[in-house]
Fold:
Amino acid sequence: MSEAAVLSLRNVSKSFGQRRALDGVSFEVRKGEMIALIGPSGSGKSTLLRSISGLTPIDPGAGEVEAFGGVVQARGRIGDGVRAARIRIGFIFQQFNLVGRLSLFTNVALGSLGRISRLRGVVGWWPAETKSAVMAALARVGVADHAAQRANTLSGGQQQRGAIARALVQRAKIVLADEPVASLDPVTARRVMEILTDLNASDGLTVIVTLHQVDYALRYCRRIVALKAGKIVYDGPVGGLDRTRLIDIYGPEFEDVFWEGAPK
Structure:
């Protein structure tokens, strides 16, 4: 892992039965990057994010995942330092992963559990610092007015912004966002992507986001990592992804659904 990298994957593979979801994936992430993971369905994008966070164990062998200089997992085993790494890695799920019966405020406050006693979290004795951080985070993403509402009464976009706020309260240094706009309408999806972009640009937060919407990847991210059949087939700047390369990644059918104004 180079000194400039906050995250490093070396020769990472993951199999589910006979299917290899990741096949020898290696790349590094520098502090403050905003990276889009793209590729066809089943290419390994979500598996890669879950491997980075240690939620999915990688295959035995030479593979290794490091974050902030510590081993998250290696040779098919979760590392002893995974808990410390997870405190600094926020994970935003496609389906929000909020507890529906709890208020939005409480869901966001749960991001502080790595720094306060579990007892205080269980009974809701949130320190004043946590309360202030929660309301500041909710205001930052534009849903502070809904703090008292149960999460399951909120719209999808409001819940997803709550999930981002939770990562802010967690004080995450890296945010892994797995298809965060897949279930949102276009206007709400753009708002969520704009929030992630602002956090990256203004706060220096490192963001890795998986996207099916290639136009969003090109619009909001500076670096693109494309997966196909579990292998990295492109890793570079947005400007390097022309029409021919995108068709190679997604197949000839991509031409038929390519949006107006795509790169030539």
Q: What stands out?
A: The domain at 1-81+220-264 is CATH 3.40.50.300 (Rossmann fold). The radius of gyration is 19 Å. Residues 186-203 form the longest helix (18 residues). Confidence is low (pLDDT under 50) at residues 259-264.
